């Protein structure tokens, strides 16, 4: 069994996650440890997370700043872990994977996730990012570039194309249903665009113009053009 001294030594000599992996490998073999982990996971109470954040924000600013400073490392750890989860899930049988994901997504609070993402996006949009030379603008640009490249490599262009086609077809079907949220969004977006002609002129036209432009007529091959050329005067067919 791993002792407290061994755990401390592992953390000091290895990275935190690397040490945790080594220790976890030994602890998983202990039945009582697994029972404790299951009991702990079953006692998770998501609504209390808001109270925890408020406590950190207003009761110990120093600890909060330390945690915020560690956010990039924590996000990177979560990203690495999720990337490996995705790799491992790809090896599961499709039926088992579908059932597993159904249970996962059925238990996720969509309203809380939407509020979190919307709040973060709203925060970013409220900042002054028009200065391309600002550090934040450059950081976001680098983040987006790396994300796009790795996403395309992991998703695969052919599989991604098929999923996008199905998604676009589904969106089109929902947009035709007056009772759907997609219909309401499309109508609201249409009204906003109609009320802002500058957006159409300066954004939509440059974006969609090349794609909607009719392809140029193909020139006829020289041989066919010569065959259709009328005979010159005085050069009738020889009898």
Write the layout of secondary structure elements.
Blueprint: H1 4-13, H2 16-27, H3 31-42, H4 48-59, H5 61-69, H6 71-89, H7 94-107, H8 110-125, H9 135-155, H10 157-175, H11 181-194, H12 197-212, H13 222-228
Describe the structure.
- The protein has helices at residues 4-13, 16-27, 31-42, 48-59, 61-69, 71-89, 94-107, 110-125, 135-155, 157-175, 181-194, 197-212, 222-228.
- Among the domains are: 1-44, no CATH class; 158-210.
- The radius of gyration is 30 Å and the shape is extended.
- The N and C termini lie far apart (110 Å).
- It is mostly helical.
- The longest helix is centred in the middle third of the chain and has 21 residues, at 135-155.
Structure summarized in a few sentences:
The chain has helices at 4-13, 16-27, 31-42, 48-59, 61-69, 71-89, 94-107, 110-125, 135-155, 157-175, 181-194, 197-212, 222-228. With 239 residues, the chain is mostly helical.
Helix content: over 70%
Structural class: mainly alpha
Distance between the terminal alpha carbons, to the nearest Å? 110 Å
| Unreliable runs | none
Shape: extended
User: Any idea what the radius of gyration is?
Assistant: 30 Å
Average pLDDT rating: 78
Note the main sheet. Answer: none
Note the beta-strand portion. under 5%
Q: Total strand count, please?
A: 0
Number of helical segments? 13
Q: Write the H/E string, N to C.
A: HHHHHHHHHHHHH
